[in-house]
Amino acid sequence: MRNFGMKCSRCRAPADHRFPAHNARFCDDCLILFVNRQVERAIKQFDMLEPGQTVAVAVSGGKDSLALWDVLHELGYETKAVHLVLDLPDFGPQSLEACQAMAHRLGQELHISDVKELSGLSMDELWRGSHREYCSVCGTMKRYYLNRLCHDLGCEVLATGHNLDDEAGRLLGNLIRRNERHLLRQWPVLEGMSADVGPGLSKKIKPLCRLSVDELKIYAKIRDLPVAHGSCPRNRGATLLYYQEAMDFLDQNMPGTKRNMYFGFLDEKGGPPPSPDPVGRCQVCAAPSHAEVCIACRLILRAKKRGAKAAKGQKNRSGSV
Ligand code: AMP
Ligand code: ZN
Predict the structure, then answer these.
(1) Cα 301 to ligand 2 centroid, rounded to whole Å
(2) Is the pTM here over 0.90, yes or no?
(3) Distance between Cα 243 and ligand 2 center (Å)
(4) How far is the CA of 283 from the centre of ligand 2 (A)?
(5) What is the mean pLDDT of each successive set of 10 residues along the chain, which is 321 residues long?
(6) What does each C-alpha distance from 69 to 112, 232, 240, 285 come to in angstroms?
(7) Contact between 99 and 59 (Cβ < 8 Å)
(8) Cβ neighbours of 315 (radius 10 Å)
(9) What ligand is nearest to the CA atom of residue 282?
């Protein structure tokens, strides 16, 4: 809805978008410029990319990762987009179609991999009996395969669409749970680790960390990005959502709280976490791992064992009739 009388903080043209967190109002053009500048600023501030470096962009089909791909492309970075098919009912096909439409629009290739083909198991099978939250299992598998895909594409850096709301919500959760290990590693860049044999760890970057969900929603709308609508059918009850809601409540009543809390935390920290210690390799897949078998392989092995046991039980039952 047009807000008559409101003027853009930058160019004084009539403005439709108001952001109390930084006391700014923008017209469409200046909002796009603002988003581009915030991404550029994050890249510089946190040493995310070097000029001319090719970056793998993890695209889910949601507004954040499509906006990320759009902005990086617009800023002149060479991008290789990767999409992981997660086999989630209803949501999965929509997500893939959205990524394909975006690839078509940018005239770029989309690299697609399927978790079921890679692991031999659906995400539901991987989760069942794992005693972990669905999102945690899904997150582990995504990190694992996206890292590998990035390596296979010859990229050293993997960019994801995590935004300010994701990071502030995660920070609140880590503080409440006093999760020292996660607090230590919470930074918009995690350095990678090269490897002589097998895949290493790609550098992970979050170029949207300075932008809120609201800013990205409007950006996606103005740019008419082919975003997949709806949300993941499996994330209901995920604890991160409660932390994000709590941050929303605080920000609505005290604009700027999210930003101040997250950037205050980063300022106090002063710099990135120490580079990862040299680690061993997973005995199953050769990925870097602190344990003999990496977490992803443990989830896969456990689910396969459970599947085999269930199949044996079924066979015994039908044999004993
Ligand atoms: P989420 O963990 O679902 O909030 O997603 C965070 C980020 O991870 C997204 O912005 C994407 O960059 C990336 N991502 C999530 N799902 C996928 C997927 N299926 N394929 C590729 N990247 C993904
Ligand atoms: Zn492994």
Answers:
(1) 10
(2) yes
(3) 31
(4) 7
(5) 76 94 94 97 96 93 97 96 87 90 98 95 90 90 95 95 97 96 94 72 96 97 94 78 96 96 96 80 90 95 88 70 47
(6) 15, 21, 24, 30
(7) yes
(8) 10
(9) 2
